[in-house]
Amino acid sequence: MNNLHVISAASLITTPEARRSGFLEYALRRNKEAIPFIDKAKALKATLQAHTNQPADILKIDKIRESLLESAGISVKAKAHLSDVDKRRLLTDFIDKILIPCGQEYINEIIYRYLLTSGDALGGKMRNIVGSIANEKLNRFVISQLQICQINFSFATNSGFFVSTEYSLDMAEAIKAIRWETNSGEQRLLIYNVHVPQVSKNIDIVLLNKFTETAKGKNLKDILGDAKNYLAIGELKGGIDPAGADEHWKTANTALGRVRIAFNGQLPLIFIGAAIESAMAGEIFDQYQNGYLANCANLTNDDQLASACEWLVNL
Fold it and tell me: What pTM was computed for the model?
Protein backbone atom coordinates (compact mmCIF):
# COMPACT_ATOMS: atom_id res chain seq x y z
CA MET A 1 0.00 0.00 0.00
CA ASN A 2 1.29 3.43 -0.96
CA ASN A 3 0.55 5.33 2.25
CA LEU A 4 2.16 3.81 5.34
CA HIS A 5 0.00 5.91 7.64
CA VAL A 6 -3.35 4.75 6.24
CA ILE A 7 -3.71 1.35 7.89
CA SER A 8 -7.47 1.16 8.40
CA ALA A 9 -10.69 3.04 7.76
CA ALA A 10 -10.46 4.43 11.29
CA SER A 11 -7.08 6.02 10.54
CA LEU A 12 -8.73 8.18 7.87
CA ILE A 13 -11.41 9.66 10.13
CA THR A 14 -10.98 13.32 11.03
CA THR A 15 -10.32 13.63 14.76
CA PRO A 16 -12.28 16.06 16.97
CA GLU A 17 -9.03 17.94 17.62
CA ALA A 18 -8.36 18.35 13.89
CA ARG A 19 -11.95 19.46 13.32
CA ARG A 20 -11.73 22.11 16.05
CA SER A 21 -8.42 23.33 14.66
CA GLY A 22 -9.91 23.53 11.16
CA PHE A 23 -12.96 25.47 12.29
CA LEU A 24 -10.71 27.88 14.18
CA GLU A 25 -8.48 28.40 11.15
CA TYR A 26 -11.46 29.16 8.90
CA ALA A 27 -13.06 31.45 11.52
CA LEU A 28 -9.87 33.48 11.85
CA ARG A 29 -9.59 33.71 8.06
CA ARG A 30 -13.25 34.72 7.77
CA ASN A 31 -12.70 37.53 10.28
CA LYS A 32 -9.78 38.76 8.21
CA GLU A 33 -11.72 38.60 4.95
CA ALA A 34 -14.68 40.43 6.53
CA ILE A 35 -12.64 43.57 7.25
CA PRO A 36 -12.99 45.13 3.74
CA PHE A 37 -16.76 44.56 3.77
CA ILE A 38 -17.09 46.25 7.16
CA ASP A 39 -14.87 49.14 6.06
CA LYS A 40 -17.02 49.67 2.96
CA ALA A 41 -20.14 49.73 5.14
CA LYS A 42 -18.55 52.42 7.31
CA ALA A 43 -17.64 54.44 4.21
CA LEU A 44 -21.17 54.10 2.87
CA LYS A 45 -22.60 55.31 6.18
CA ALA A 46 -20.30 58.34 6.20
CA THR A 47 -21.38 59.32 2.68
CA LEU A 48 -25.07 58.95 3.53
CA GLN A 49 -24.67 61.05 6.66
CA ALA A 50 -22.89 63.79 4.71
CA HIS A 51 -25.14 63.95 1.64
CA THR A 52 -28.66 62.92 2.65
CA ASN A 53 -31.38 64.28 4.93
CA GLN A 54 -34.17 61.93 3.92
CA PRO A 55 -34.50 58.57 2.11
CA ALA A 56 -35.34 60.10 -1.28
CA ASP A 57 -31.97 61.86 -1.33
CA ILE A 58 -30.15 58.61 -2.07
CA LEU A 59 -31.34 58.80 -5.68
CA LYS A 60 -29.20 61.90 -6.16
CA ILE A 61 -25.89 60.22 -5.23
CA ASP A 62 -24.80 58.38 -8.37
CA LYS A 63 -21.36 57.45 -7.03
CA ILE A 64 -22.81 55.07 -4.42
CA ARG A 65 -25.73 53.74 -6.46
CA GLU A 66 -24.19 50.29 -6.88
CA SER A 67 -23.67 49.96 -3.14
CA LEU A 68 -27.25 51.12 -2.51
CA LEU A 69 -28.49 48.43 -4.88
CA GLU A 70 -26.64 45.88 -2.76
CA SER A 71 -28.44 47.30 0.28
CA ALA A 72 -31.67 46.69 -1.61
CA GLY A 73 -30.71 43.02 -1.89
CA ILE A 74 -29.25 42.91 -5.40
CA SER A 75 -26.05 40.89 -5.68
CA VAL A 76 -23.08 41.92 -7.82
CA LYS A 77 -23.94 39.12 -10.25
CA ALA A 78 -27.59 40.16 -10.47
CA LYS A 79 -26.71 43.82 -11.12
CA ALA A 80 -25.04 42.86 -14.38
CA HIS A 81 -28.43 41.79 -15.75
CA LEU A 82 -30.30 45.00 -14.87
CA SER A 83 -30.66 48.13 -16.96
CA ASP A 84 -30.34 51.64 -15.52
CA VAL A 85 -34.12 51.93 -15.64
CA ASP A 86 -34.46 48.66 -13.69
CA LYS A 87 -32.00 49.86 -11.09
CA ARG A 88 -33.72 53.21 -10.54
CA ARG A 89 -37.12 51.52 -10.31
CA LEU A 90 -35.78 49.10 -7.74
CA LEU A 91 -34.22 51.86 -5.62
CA THR A 92 -37.45 53.87 -5.77
CA ASP A 93 -39.37 50.83 -4.53
CA PHE A 94 -36.73 50.29 -1.82
CA ILE A 95 -37.20 53.87 -0.63
CA ASP A 96 -41.00 53.71 -0.60
CA LYS A 97 -41.46 50.30 1.02
CA ILE A 98 -38.42 49.97 3.28
CA LEU A 99 -36.68 53.26 4.02
CA ILE A 100 -39.51 55.77 4.43
CA PRO A 101 -41.26 53.65 7.12
CA CYS A 102 -37.97 53.68 9.08
CA GLY A 103 -38.10 57.46 9.52
CA GLN A 104 -34.80 58.97 10.62
CA GLU A 105 -33.31 55.47 11.06
CA TYR A 106 -33.16 55.01 7.28
CA ILE A 107 -29.35 55.21 7.19
CA ASN A 108 -28.96 52.42 9.72
CA GLU A 109 -31.48 50.36 7.74
CA ILE A 110 -29.40 50.83 4.57
CA ILE A 111 -26.22 49.76 6.36
CA TYR A 112 -27.81 46.70 8.00
CA ARG A 113 -29.14 45.53 4.66
CA TYR A 114 -25.86 46.28 2.90
CA LEU A 115 -24.07 44.06 5.42
CA LEU A 116 -26.62 41.27 4.83
CA THR A 117 -25.85 41.25 1.11
CA SER A 118 -22.14 41.54 1.86
CA GLY A 119 -22.47 38.47 4.08
CA ASP A 120 -23.62 36.45 1.07
CA ALA A 121 -20.63 37.72 -0.92
CA LEU A 122 -18.29 36.87 1.95
CA GLY A 123 -19.78 33.37 2.15
CA GLY A 124 -19.08 32.81 -1.53
CA LYS A 125 -15.55 34.12 -1.14
CA MET A 126 -14.95 31.83 1.84
CA ARG A 127 -16.06 28.78 -0.13
CA ASN A 128 -13.32 29.56 -2.63
CA ILE A 129 -10.85 30.26 0.16
CA VAL A 130 -11.52 26.85 1.76
CA GLY A 131 -10.31 25.30 -1.49
CA SER A 132 -7.31 27.61 -1.70
CA ILE A 133 -6.31 26.77 1.91
CA ALA A 134 -6.33 23.08 0.98
CA ASN A 135 -4.26 23.79 -2.13
CA GLU A 136 -1.85 25.88 -0.09
CA LYS A 137 -1.24 23.02 2.34
CA LEU A 138 -0.79 20.50 -0.46
CA ASN A 139 1.67 22.85 -2.19
CA ARG A 140 3.69 23.25 0.99
CA PHE A 141 3.99 19.50 1.48
CA VAL A 142 4.84 18.76 -2.17
CA ILE A 143 7.50 21.48 -2.22
CA SER A 144 8.90 20.29 1.11
CA GLN A 145 9.24 16.80 -0.36
CA LEU A 146 11.07 18.20 -3.39
CA GLN A 147 13.34 20.26 -1.16
CA ILE A 148 14.39 17.42 1.13
CA CYS A 149 15.15 15.29 -1.92
CA GLN A 150 17.16 18.21 -3.35
CA ILE A 151 15.10 18.22 -6.53
CA ASN A 152 15.12 21.54 -8.38
CA PHE A 153 11.64 22.75 -9.23
CA SER A 154 9.80 25.73 -10.62
CA PHE A 155 6.30 26.96 -9.89
CA ALA A 156 3.60 28.95 -11.65
CA THR A 157 1.05 31.36 -10.28
CA ASN A 158 -0.92 32.92 -13.15
CA SER A 159 1.66 33.20 -15.91
CA GLY A 160 5.10 31.72 -16.45
CA PHE A 161 7.16 29.56 -14.13
CA PHE A 162 9.52 30.87 -11.47
CA VAL A 163 12.60 28.98 -10.29
CA SER A 164 12.61 27.44 -6.82
CA THR A 165 15.02 30.03 -5.44
CA GLU A 166 12.24 32.61 -5.76
CA TYR A 167 9.81 30.52 -3.71
CA SER A 168 8.69 31.74 -0.30
CA LEU A 169 6.03 30.37 2.02
CA ASP A 170 3.58 33.20 1.37
CA MET A 171 3.47 32.18 -2.32
CA ALA A 172 2.07 28.72 -1.60
CA GLU A 173 -1.56 29.83 -1.73
CA ALA A 174 -1.24 31.30 -5.25
CA ILE A 175 0.65 28.41 -6.88
CA LYS A 176 -1.29 26.82 -9.75
CA ALA A 177 1.35 24.34 -10.91
CA ILE A 178 4.74 22.87 -9.97
CA ARG A 179 7.19 21.23 -12.35
CA TRP A 180 10.41 19.30 -11.80
CA GLU A 181 12.70 16.66 -13.28
CA THR A 182 13.18 13.29 -11.66
CA ASN A 183 16.66 11.97 -10.90
CA SER A 184 16.49 10.04 -14.16
CA GLY A 185 15.66 13.20 -16.14
CA GLU A 186 11.94 12.62 -16.65
CA GLN A 187 9.64 15.65 -16.70
CA ARG A 188 6.86 16.12 -14.17
CA LEU A 189 4.10 18.76 -14.04
CA LEU A 190 1.66 18.89 -11.12
CA ILE A 191 -1.24 21.18 -11.92
CA TYR A 192 -4.43 22.04 -10.02
CA ASN A 193 -8.07 22.56 -10.97
CA VAL A 194 -7.55 21.99 -14.66
CA HIS A 195 -9.95 20.86 -17.38
CA VAL A 196 -9.34 17.22 -18.35
CA PRO A 197 -10.89 16.74 -21.80
CA GLN A 198 -11.16 12.96 -21.45
CA VAL A 199 -13.82 13.47 -18.74
CA SER A 200 -15.00 16.97 -19.78
CA LYS A 201 -14.61 18.18 -16.20
CA ASN A 202 -12.20 20.17 -14.08
CA ILE A 203 -10.05 17.94 -11.86
CA ASP A 204 -8.42 19.12 -8.63
CA ILE A 205 -5.03 17.36 -8.96
CA VAL A 206 -3.36 16.29 -12.22
CA LEU A 207 0.19 14.92 -12.55
CA LEU A 208 1.63 14.94 -16.08
CA ASN A 209 4.85 13.66 -17.61
CA LYS A 210 5.51 16.75 -19.77
CA PHE A 211 6.46 20.36 -19.09
CA THR A 212 4.72 23.51 -20.29
CA GLU A 213 6.03 27.07 -20.42
CA THR A 214 2.91 28.42 -18.68
CA ALA A 215 0.18 26.91 -16.55
CA LYS A 216 -2.39 27.63 -19.26
CA GLY A 217 -2.66 28.05 -23.01
CA LYS A 218 -2.55 25.90 -26.14
CA ASN A 219 0.58 23.96 -25.18
CA LEU A 220 -1.04 22.78 -21.95
CA LYS A 221 -4.28 22.04 -23.76
CA ASP A 222 -2.46 19.84 -26.26
CA ILE A 223 -0.66 17.95 -23.49
CA LEU A 224 -3.91 17.41 -21.59
CA GLY A 225 -5.54 16.12 -24.75
CA ASP A 226 -3.19 13.11 -24.95
CA ALA A 227 -4.03 10.36 -22.44
CA LYS A 228 -0.43 9.09 -22.54
CA ASN A 229 0.74 12.23 -20.73
CA TYR A 230 -1.11 11.50 -17.48
CA LEU A 231 0.59 9.90 -14.48
CA ALA A 232 -2.04 10.40 -11.77
CA ILE A 233 -5.29 12.22 -11.06
CA GLY A 234 -6.81 13.16 -7.74
CA GLU A 235 -9.55 15.00 -5.90
CA LEU A 236 -8.87 17.43 -3.05
CA LYS A 237 -11.65 18.48 -0.66
CA GLY A 238 -10.70 21.07 1.96
CA GLY A 239 -14.02 21.66 3.74
CA ILE A 240 -13.84 20.74 7.42
CA ASP A 241 -17.56 20.78 8.27
CA PRO A 242 -18.72 17.20 8.93
CA ALA A 243 -22.22 18.13 7.71
CA GLY A 244 -20.89 18.43 4.16
CA ALA A 245 -18.33 15.64 4.31
CA ASP A 246 -20.42 12.93 2.69
CA GLU A 247 -21.50 15.23 -0.14
CA HIS A 248 -17.87 16.20 -0.83
CA TRP A 249 -16.89 12.55 -1.02
CA LYS A 250 -19.82 11.70 -3.33
CA THR A 251 -18.81 14.52 -5.67
CA ALA A 252 -15.15 13.43 -5.62
CA ASN A 253 -16.04 9.75 -6.03
CA THR A 254 -18.24 10.52 -9.04
CA ALA A 255 -15.41 12.52 -10.65
CA LEU A 256 -12.89 9.76 -9.98
CA GLY A 257 -15.32 7.19 -11.36
CA ARG A 258 -15.47 9.11 -14.64
CA VAL A 259 -11.67 9.15 -14.74
CA ARG A 260 -11.53 5.36 -14.21
CA ILE A 261 -13.84 4.83 -17.17
CA ALA A 262 -12.08 7.37 -19.40
CA PHE A 263 -8.62 5.92 -18.70
CA ASN A 264 -9.73 2.26 -18.61
CA GLY A 265 -8.75 1.91 -14.96
CA GLN A 266 -5.06 2.30 -15.82
CA LEU A 267 -4.42 5.65 -14.15
CA PRO A 268 -3.49 5.88 -10.43
CA LEU A 269 -6.07 7.89 -8.48
CA ILE A 270 -5.79 9.70 -5.15
CA PHE A 271 -8.29 11.27 -2.77
CA ILE A 272 -7.34 13.81 -0.10
CA GLY A 273 -10.02 15.25 2.17
CA ALA A 274 -10.19 17.30 5.36
CA ALA A 275 -13.58 16.14 6.64
CA ILE A 276 -13.72 12.35 6.58
CA GLU A 277 -16.45 10.73 8.66
CA SER A 278 -16.87 7.09 9.63
CA ALA A 279 -19.11 5.82 6.79
CA MET A 280 -17.14 7.49 4.01
CA ALA A 281 -13.84 6.44 5.61
CA GLY A 282 -14.97 2.85 5.14
CA GLU A 283 -15.75 3.42 1.47
CA ILE A 284 -12.47 5.24 0.84
CA PHE A 285 -10.41 2.55 2.58
CA ASP A 286 -12.22 -0.22 0.68
CA GLN A 287 -11.33 1.46 -2.62
CA TYR A 288 -7.76 1.91 -1.41
CA GLN A 289 -7.45 -1.75 -0.45
CA ASN A 290 -9.02 -2.92 -3.72
CA GLY A 291 -6.78 -0.72 -5.87
CA TYR A 292 -9.50 1.63 -7.12
CA LEU A 293 -7.58 4.33 -5.24
CA ALA A 294 -3.80 4.19 -5.45
CA ASN A 295 -3.46 6.53 -2.47
CA CYS A 296 -5.56 8.49 0.00
CA ALA A 297 -4.99 10.81 2.95
CA ASN A 298 -6.74 12.97 5.49
CA LEU A 299 -5.65 16.56 4.84
CA THR A 300 -5.57 17.24 8.59
CA ASN A 301 -3.15 14.35 9.22
CA ASP A 302 0.36 15.60 8.43
CA ASP A 303 1.89 12.10 8.35
CA GLN A 304 -0.66 10.86 5.83
CA LEU A 305 -0.35 13.98 3.69
CA ALA A 306 3.46 13.86 3.71
CA SER A 307 3.37 10.21 2.65
CA ALA A 308 0.88 10.95 -0.14
CA CYS A 309 3.07 13.80 -1.42
CA GLU A 310 6.16 11.57 -1.36
CA TRP A 311 4.23 9.11 -3.53
CA LEU A 312 3.23 11.86 -5.98
CA VAL A 313 6.77 13.21 -6.27
CA ASN A 314 8.21 9.75 -6.86
CA LEU A 315 5.78 8.63 -9.55
Answer: 0.83
